[in-house]
Design goal:
This protein is mainly beta. Helix content is about 5%, strand content about 35%. The protein is built from twelve helices and 84 strands. An eight-stranded antiparallel β-sheet has the order 48-47-46-59-58-57-56-55, with helices on one face. Strands 72, 75, 76, 77, 81, 82, 83 and 84 form an eight-stranded mixed β-sheet that branches. Strand 33 and strand 34 (about 740-750) form a beta hairpin. It starts with 15 loop residues before the first strand and ends with a strand.
Length: about 1500
């Protein structure tokens, strides 16, 4: 669907829609080109339901926060609020790398940011379309975010459509990690000029386009959009806020960089500072539990003079003190913090305008800098982009690096002295280890660095050479007996880094990752260290902190001295300034030869009594509280509710996840409506540090695979299932936290054959738990979920015996679920019902039930008129009578019941189908279609359909006229209509449907007619739809049963007696124009969407032959071209034929730029009008039978009574002349016309509705005068084709008696004069304009030729005096200027690169490069604020021999086809001027005539043209 939205400067709404969900998101969207967002290149994005986009992961936040958030993500928020589109609204996203949207974005950015020479390569349009606010489903809000990039520059555009008043806060703008760059759009709930009505979004802009805001968001120059002067970036020194400050008025603005393209937002900052956000912990000891590796003794360790004292183990009883992993060189850490908390870094902003950032040119980093002091490895390699709180891009590791059991293939070097693996991290405020956080990271010197002016961040990898040899030697020295041989070394150096905000400081540190594939090490090297002004944390930490270490000298260590000399003067390997740690999964024996404590060994293939368990075997995870397995690559993909996964994680707390490990130990009730897919056989708070093991094993052959195959075929018969993958995850004798004496065993088994996926949950012995338990599965946004009875959150008892005493497959202790593409969560009378399945509950078919993600939903819905209630495979269903379809559409084409195709353009009434050989009590019918011309006399379209029905004494006549005007038995009727027992008439989509049981007639009121009859009518019908006998060869028969000679003979034979006299007299034979179609191949490609076997209609091909529709589509395009909607009409006709068969056709309209809904529906054209398109606008044209008594005055009439007047004009004649009724008014602009029965009425009176009426007297009469005006809209562009209408009319009366009136209408339209100077050129090239498409009647120079603004002008360029057999004339380009200067800067292109200029859709290139004559046409225009038009063309001659001199310009697509042209010579020619004639009043002759009838209305528009010749400019 391509929905159309009224209001707002929206880009096209098209593409993929997300799954409807509250607080949902799109899947990961790979970007076809990277998008750089403030220095960070992103390759994918997420469109989240609550009005924002993110890059690293989906985000479900529904509570908007004030920007700057100072958070951990980059995000773009056009309208961040709590949306809920479960019932109302859609989220669309679409990417464009070519086509009109790309061109529009290029043009827009160049308009708003001139001087960049921008050329978009990717545009992503995300639309929140008619979204409802939670929990108000009646609201509808439409907004867009558009990402635009050319690879160098990046822009974000916000477009605002209709916005309902929200019920919650709204935040609009963008923000970055830690908020160095952010902006809030005025009108947001948190902005100072928030009004609450949200009109500011649609009524304001920073680019002078109401409802649009545009921002440049890459790393380029931050020059202003609105031509404001660039202000250099300044940084206000950081201040420390008071403790527990009192805030009066507005808050201070934290440290940010405001891009200078952002207009001033009138931020008022008064008094006070913002207090830092803190967490308060009150009372008691809340010591976290962390895993203690068995080789780590407790430490009371003193470091003196760079050496390490011996270590001792002290184990004492007492309270629940935290268990931590403390390497033996680590002192106890009980830091004292005196005097409040450290305030976050902020900039104090007091009054004045926003300070803008400008980008300082990047300096060149030193090559291999040398550092005095410290045991540093070489400083070399790649440097990051200088930025405050920045990071490197993702760094792919040339070999994997194992970090405490987790294998990583990439890393990030972050500016603030730390490294991470999963994503970059911008934190500049160090925290105390252990953090018990969600990331693994390595921190040689975590503090607030700022290298925007001073310092560089280097990183380099080595897989051979001297650095690898040095690392090998170092590790073998520090960790003897490993026989280590490094295969990978990554050196990250923070070189001469300055502290924020002190640019005069310089600190150099290194982190070195070293690995041989089995063992992994981290080395910290310290060079010169300036005394820092912020806290420093040095060491490493892991997810949930089972492994962590703090280097002595850190701000948070007990021996912190404040001078940081300890980093350079201490070591754990006897090399001052160097610390080295082993960080893989191997033995954690001490570096300094301390005794190692062995790991417990898990049992091999343990046997469990009770429960239907699969074998317990395979790999065990590391014992830890709230831990997880490493990433487990699956040997075959596992599809989980439509999402194929290639890996999984087995988490310690009784659940499995796919995207990443998950440490949650507090179970939540399903559905969670969360952001992850999860399988939870027994989600609770396990603790296996002392008791229990987590096993996982995969099988791709053998007995387990055979057992799984047998089990699935037993539980799900009929699938012929053959397992190819089994993964068994076992939580074996797991203890509950903190009760180590408990033992519980459960399993989750993933089973797949590549097509079907299943999950088994097996339950062994289960100890009575002491916390909640959740068992089942859930999905992202909870589209599919299930809770096993016995869960704490289920209705069953909490005794948990239900798990191994119950089953859904008759095997106690086992639950089995199919989890590939369907959920089995519904049941009816104990029978499972699949998600999405519908049925009627009983034989009355009064209630329809559907299995949804919320369970079984039932509501009243009886069968339709022509359906019957029948038993089905499950319960009952409303079954439609099987029918065959005849389709009549286009100009027009008849696709018969049996598939024969006829083209017939007659304009009478014709019997489409009628019944014969009737049975007893069987309804007789006749369907008659009336065709009319539209726009020309060569073709026709169905304009009205008559359906005659009778059965016994009952009969009816139903007429569906043009534009869906309905009459029943001659009288107007409103839908729906039930006509006795014969028929029911309803609206079905864009069609009016007559349902008469085994006959259904559908007509769209425009051109498409469907006649559908039941199979019982086979071989008992006749007419232009054929006899329905299964044989297409005898469909085209005459009423007497003989075969027709051709389609015309066939059509004329079925003329109806209801035809109007004289019908068909104006028909013209189209001849063999199909044979002369110049773009047959291109049109065939366009129409191939119908026949494409992998296209949107492929499912319909076996039910309805697409080839007649395809050939008819090409037929219509050859006669009309695609520009007037014929392509859309052709494809829609096949879609309608497929849809009535019950087929669900995928969306296709956006690709062909077809409107989703019928634009004619809202126009209400009358029976004497037809809806069509003119200059890109839909309106009502006059039917060929429309009364045209005075076409020059738009069939005007006037009624005068007393002191009032009513002027009436023909709507369709106005539209045909280019005037739209909505733009017309009287002298008073507020007095618009109203439309009644196809007439535009204007009313005035001399009392309370003057409308600018003037009363005057001429001595014998008094006269009321007014004018109907149609003024051009204000136009800021280069040219205008708008016409102006000025119809003067009056009501005049004798002074003695008002008996009659007289009328004079004097339309004054824009008039231009053309005068062409004479000149002689060297090439003897002549340019001549013509009046007609046949180039037979040149525009004369005697002033007698009439021509209007927007009238088609035909131009011929002819080369004389050359060999016509050798040379051809090619128009390279043609353009217009307002003065006689070819290179004048004000110009309008008509032809560029030998093809019509894309900006002017009126140019048609008729002939170019074929002979010595080139021809084109365009519609006349004027330059704004100029009165003359001069035409110029650049011409060259092409040698015909051996070259393809003719170009192919595809209609509707201004693109050139590459060709090889040999240029013989070139020249420029010019012609002009064409002068705009001044408007003047038409003379009245000094008297006013009086008549009992209206005075004839006079319309005069003329264009004076002089015969022109060409001059050649050398």
């Amino acid at each position: 669907m391509n929905p159309q939205v009224i209001g707002g400067p929206l880009y096209p709404i098209a593409g993929t829609t997300t799954i409807r969900a509250d607080d949902g998101s799109s899947p990961l969207i790979p970007l076809q080109h990277p998008f750089v967002f403030f220095g960070h290149p992103y390759n994918y994005t997420y469109v989240n339901h609550n009005g924002h986009l993110t890059f690293d992961s989906a985000w479900y936040s529904h509570t908007s926060q004030r920007i700057p958030v100072f958070g951990s993500r980059d995000f773009i928020a056009p309208f961040w609020t709590d949306f809920d589109n479960r019932q109302t609204g859609w989220v669309y996203y679409n990417q464009y790398t070519n086509g009109s949207v790309l061109h529009q974005a290029t043009q827009d950015i160049n308009d708003y940011f001139p001087g960049l020479n921008f050329n978009a390569t990717v545009v992503l349009v995300a639309t929140w379309y008619e979204m409802a606010y939670f929990s108000n489903t009646g609201t509808k809000t439409t907004v867009q975010a558009v990402l635009i990039s050319d690879g160098q520059y990046s822009f974000v555009m916000f477009n605002y459509g209709i916005i309902s008043p929200p019920v919650r806060n709204v935040q609009a703008g963008y923000d970055t990690v830690n908020s160095p760059y952010h902006f809030t759009i005025p009108g947001s709930s948190f902005s100072n000029n928030f009004t609450g009505n949200y009109s500011n979004f649609r009524n304001s802009s920073n680019v002078n386009v109401l409802g649009r805001w545009v921002f440049r968001v890459d790393n380029g120059s931050r020059s202003c959009v609105l031509n404001c002067p660039t202000v250099p970036q300044t940084t206000t020194p950081q201040a420390t806020p008071p403790v527990n400050p009192q805030v009066v008025g507005a808050t201070n603005i934290p440290q940010t960089t405001t891009p200078p393209w952002t207009p001033s937002v009138n931020h008022q900052v008064t008094g006070g500072t913002t207090a830092p956000q803190t967490n308060q912990v009150t009372g008691g000891s809340n010591n976290p539990q962390t895993a203690t590796p068995p080789w780590t003794p407790s430490v009371n360790h003193q470091v003196t003079g760079g050496t390490t004292a011996p270590q001792t183990n002290q184990v004492t009883g007492g309270s629940n003190n935290p268990q931590t992993t403390t390497p033996p060189w680590t002192p106890s850490v009980n830091p004292q913090v005196v005097g409040g908390t450290t305030a976050p870094q902020t900039n104090q902003v007091t009054g004045g305008p926003t300070v803008n950032q400008t980008t300082t040119p990047q300096a060149t980093p030193p090559v291999n800098p040398q550092v005095v002091g410290g045991p540093l490895y070489p400083i070399a390699g790649t440097t990051t982009i200088r930025a405050l709180d920045g990071s490197s891009p993702l760094i792919p590791l040339q070999h994997p690096f194992v970090y405490f059991g987790q294998q990583y293939n990439h890393t990030y070097v972050n500016h603030n002295g730390h490294m991470t693996f999963v994503s970059s991290w911008y934190s500049y405020i160090p925290q105390k280890f252990p953090m018990f956080g969600s990331r693994d990271f390595i921190a040689p010197f975590w503090t607030d660095f700022d290298n925007r002016q001073t310092g560089w961040v280097y990183y380099n990898q080595y897989t051979n050479g001297s650095v690898l040899h040095q690392a090998t030697q170092d590790i073998n020295d520090y960790f003897p007996s490993l026989n280590f041989n490094a295969t990978l070394v990554l050196v990250a150096t923070w070189y001469e880094m300055a502290y924020y905000f002190n640019t005069g400081t310089k600190t150099t540190v290194q982190a070195v990752l070293i690995s041989d594939g089995q063992y992994s090490f981290v080395m910290f090297n310290y060079g010169n260290i300036s005394p820092p002004v912020h806290n420093v944390q040095a060491g490493y930490d892991t997810v949930n902190s089972p492994y962590h270490f703090t280097i002595p000298g850190s701000s948070f260590s007990n021996n912190f001295t404040g001078n940081y000399s300890n980093f350079r003067n201490s070591s754990n390997v006897n090399v001052l300034g160097r610390w080295v740690f082993r960080v893989d999964n191997g033995s954690r024996s001490c570096v300094l030869n301390c005794p190692a404590v062995p790991q417990p060994t898990p049992p091999v293939n343990p046997q469990v009594t009770g429960g239907p368990l699969y074998p317990i075997a395979g790999t065990t995870t590391f014992r830890s509280l709230d831990g997880s397995s490493p990433l487990i690559p699956l040997q075959h993909p596992f599809v989980y509710f439509g999402h194929p996964y290639n890996y999984t994680y087995v988490n310690h707390n009784g659940h499995m996840t796919f995207d990443y490990s998950w440490y949650s130990f507090i179970p939540q009730k399903f559905p969670m409506f969360g952001s992850r897919d999860v399988i939870a056989p027994f989600w609770t708070d396990f603790d296996n540090r002392q008791t229990g093991w987590v096993y996982y094993n995969q099988y791709t052959n053998g007995s387990v695979l055979h057992q799984a195959t047998q089990d699935i075929n037993d539980y799900f018969p009929g699938l012929n299932f053959n397992a190819t993958l089994v993964l068994v995850a076992t939580w074996y004798e797991m203890a509950y936290y903190p009760n180590t004496g408990t033992k519980t065993t459960v399993q989750a088994v993933l089973i797949s054959d590549g097509q079907y996926s299943f999950v088994l949950m097996n339950y062994g012995i289960i100890s009575p738990p002491i916390r909640n338990v959740q068992a089942g599965y859930d999905t992202v946004s909870s589209a599919y979920r299930f809770t096993i009875p016995g869960s704490s959150f289920s209705n069953s008892s909490a005794g948990n015996s239900s798990f191994w005493n119950s089953s859904n497959v008759n095997v106690p202790g086992r639950w089995a679920f199919r989890v590939d593409n369907g959920s089995r969560s519904c049941a009816f009378n104990g029978v499972p019902v699949e998600l999405g399945d519908s049925f009627w509950s009983d034989s009355s078919c009064a209630t329809k039930c559907t299995c949804t993600s919320k369970g079984l939903q039932c509501h009243s819905q009886p069968c339709f008129f022509s359906q019957i209630c029948q038993p089905d495979t499950f319960q009952f269903s409303c079954q439609t009578v099987q029918r065959q379809t005849c389709t009549v559409w286009g100009d027009p084409h008849y696709i018969c019941f049996d598939g024969a195709l006829a083209h017939f353009q007659g304009t009478c009434s014709y019997i489409v189908s009628e019944s014969v050989s009737h049975g007893i009590n069987e309804t007789q019918f006749q369907v008659v279609a009336t065709n009319n011309h539209r726009g020309n006399n060569r073709v026709s379209f169905v304009s009205a359909v008559d359906v005659y029905l009778s059965n016994g004494q009952e009969s009816t006549h139903i007429r569906i006229g043009p534009n869906k005007v309905l009459k029943v038995n001659g009288s107007g009727a409103s839908l729906p209509v039930t006509n006795g027992s014969l028929a029911q008439v309803t609206r079905q989509g864009s069609f009016i449907e007559v349902d008469a049981g085994d006959l259904i007639v559908e007509f769209d009121g425009h051109s498409t007619l469907l006649v559908r009859i039941g199979l019982n009518r086979k071989n008992r019908v006749r007419g232009m739809c054929g006899n329905f006998n299964g044989d297409p060869s005898d469909d085209k028969v005459l009423p007497n049963g003989t075969l027709a000679l051709n389609d015309n003979h066939f059509g004329h034979s079925w003329i109806s007696t209801t035809s109007q006299p004289g019908c068909g007299s104006t028909d013209e034979d189209i001849g063999n124009e199909m044979n002369d179609c110049p773009f047959m191949q291109q049109y065939s490609e366009l129409c191939s969407v119908i026949t494409n076997t992998s296209g949107p209609f492929s499912a319909c091909h076996q039910h309805s032959d697409p080839h007649p529709f395809f050939s008819s589509c090409v037929y219509d395009l050859c006669l009309y071209t695609p520009a007037n909607g014929m392509l859309c009409s052709a494809v829609s006709a096949y879609e309608s034929t497929c849809s009535v068969l019950g087929l669900d056709i995928p969306e296709w309209r956006s690709a062909l730029q077809c409107a989703e809904s019928d634009p004619c529906d809202s126009l209400n054209c009358t029976e004497n009008e037809w809806c069509g398109q003119k200059n890109g606008v839909y309106g009502c044209f006059c039917d060929e039978h429309h009364h045209r008594a005075d076409n020059g005055s738009y069939d005007s009439s006037i009624t005068c009574a007393s002191s009032t007047g009513i002027m009436s004009l023909s709507r369709c004649q106005l539209f045909e002349a280019g005037f739209y009724p909505s733009t017309l008014h009287l002298r008073d602009h507020s007095c618009n016309g109203i439309i009644e029965e196809g007439r535009v009425l204007f009313h005035f009176d001399n009392e309370d509705n003057l409308c600018g009426t003037v009363l005057r007297s001429n001595g014998t009469h008094f006269i009321y005068e007014n004018n109907i005006k149609g003024e051009a809209d204000p136009h800021d562009g280069l040219i205008s084709r708008e016409q102006r209408l000025n119809l003067a009319f009056c009501c005049e009366y004798p002074l003695t008696q008002a008996l009659s009136m007289a009328v004079g209408i004097n339309p004054l339209e824009s008039i231009v004069n053309r005068k062409i100077p004479v000149g002689v050129g060297q090439y003897n090239i002549r340019i001549t304009p013509y009046q007609d498409a046949g180039f037979q009647y040149p525009l004369a120079g005697d002033g007698n030729t009439g021509i209007e603004i927007d009238q088609e002008i035909y131009v011929e360029v002819r080369t004389e005096g050359v060999d016509k057999q050798q040379l051809s004339t090619i128009l390279d380009s043609c353009w217009a200027t307002p003065v006689d200067i070819a290179d004048y800067p004000v110009r309008w292109d008509l032809i560029t690169s030998e093809c019509p200029a894309p900006a002017d859709g009126t140019v048609e290139l008729i002939q170019n490069g074929i002979s010595t004559v080139s021809r084109f046409s365009f519609r006349m225009f004027t330059f704004t604020n100029f009165t003359a038009v001069f035409l110029h063309c650049q011409v060259h001659l092409c040698l015909l021999k051996g070259n393809n001199c003719s170009n192919t310009c595809y209609p509707g697509h201004h693109e050139r086809v590459q060709r090889d042209v040999s240029y013989h010579d070139t020249a420029d020619i010019s012609v002009g001027p064409i002068l705009l004639r001044q408007e003047r009043a038409l003379p009245r002759g000094g008297e006013v005539s009086k008549s009992s009838a209206s005075t004839p209305v006079i319309s005069m528009v003329s264009l004076l043209v002089s015969l022109l010749t060409a001059k050649t400019l050398i």
